[in-house]
Protein: Lipoprotein
Amino acid sequence: MSHKFSLTLLVPICAALLLACAAKPEMRSSCASESDAAWKELSLAKAKGFGGTVSYAKALSLLTAARTMQVAENFDACYNNAKDARDYIANSYKGQ
Structure:
């Protein structure tokens, strides 16, 4: 393999990795704040008697997945799961 060919492949890969790393701190804090808010809302929903609804169960499942994604440092998925969980929690108040 020629040096020009390997350099042609290496530069875009390095650029992509740098962009991914640059976005991590922002998504890390978004993931943390969204999942913390969702856990608080889930606790309130349970305290208000909505703990047995289907929406509550879905939210709990999504928040468990969000924590797993947070530990794996997949902050985009963490944020999205926590955001979806908050939607399900809101629906549990509506009886859905």
In short: Residues 14-19 have pLDDT under 50 and may be disordered. The helical segments are 3-47, 54-71, 75-93. Residues 25-93 form one domain. The chain has three helices and no strands.
